[in-house]
Amino acid sequence: MDHNKDNDVDLLWTGFGANASVEKTINILSGILLGFISDGVIQEEEKEFLKKWRIEHVHEDLVQKLRPVFAKIDDALADDVLAIEEVLEILSVVDQINPTSTNYHPETIDVQFFLGLCNGVFADDQIKPEEIRLLSTWSEQRKNLPLSPEWRDCLEKLICCLDSSGTVPSELLNNLRQFITDFIHCPTSEDANITFENKQFVLSGQFAIGPKKNVAKIIEERGGAVSSSVSQKTNYVVVGGTRSVLWKYDSYGTKVAKAKQLKEAGLPIEIVSEGSFMNAISAYQELLNEQK
């Protein structure tokens, strides 16, 4: 990797600076790595997942604080083999650069870490007893983590089965697999019909089209309102960011998680991408032009 910068850069796609980007990256990476080693074995699929993750974060090579972590990852992957000892070394470096002050609400940090943990656990497409216990323990310690009651109930039942018989019913395991899959994949509705008049929007992540205040102005000019938090009154959560295929590493937070929770409860709330939002803006403008 080419490192030509000696100072931290203000990453334009984060909107709030390199320190926040560092924290977000290491929160998720910590979860991923812990998920890798929770069963005591590094699988080939986990190594490949880390390689893909590294490629998707190549733009962060410019952030000086992250260079030691990326250098350690590159060294570990140089021989195309990933050992537990190497993962532990990467985790050690991550711990050393963890910022002393946080840019995030504690719940957002928990969501970022748990997102990484789920990715790490599920990277090899398997869920072993040790991994079930890790997910259960970690989520139990964080009651504010926005998991559905069904997810928590599934984990509780799985732990009971492990404690009583040492085995888990395939139906429960499949349910957990689905919960994890839903959590780590983008929940945006690309076919959502977006209207503006008297609708309430919440903005999540950072936007390629500009600062959130500019996006809010676009909405308000068209008769919509923008709120800072997700509630039962929310109609749309717009997820900003078009740079990374792995959208979750850039945008996932409590707003999206809360919206998913409300949507699963049957409320008419839509989670839409920045691209879909911009398509709706274009359609709105065309309609205005036709009415002139």
What do these coordinates show?
The chain has a 4-stranded parallel beta sheet with strand order 2-1-3-4, with helices on both faces. Mean pLDDT is 82; it is low at 1-17 and 242-251. It has 292 residues and is mostly helical. The chain has helices at 18-37, 44-56, 67-77, 84-97, 106-122, 129-140, 149-164, 170-184, 212-221, 248-251, 254-264, 274-291, and strands spanning 200-204, 225-227, 236-239, 270-273. Helix 7 (149-164) packs antiparallel against helix 8. The longest helix has 20 residues, at 18-37. The radius of gyration is 20 Å and the shape is globular.
The low-confidence runs, each spanning 5 or more residues with pLDDT under 50, are 1-17, 242-251
Distance between the termini: 54 Å
Major pleated sheet:
4 strands, parallel
Q: Report the C-alpha radius of gyration, rounded.
A: 20 Å
Number of H- or I-type helical stretches: 12
Helix content: 55-70%
Shape: globular
| Biggest sheet strand line-up | 2-1-3-4
Rounded mean pLDDT score: 82
Main structural class: mainly alpha
Task: Provide a quick synopsis of the model.
The chain has 292 residues and is mainly α.
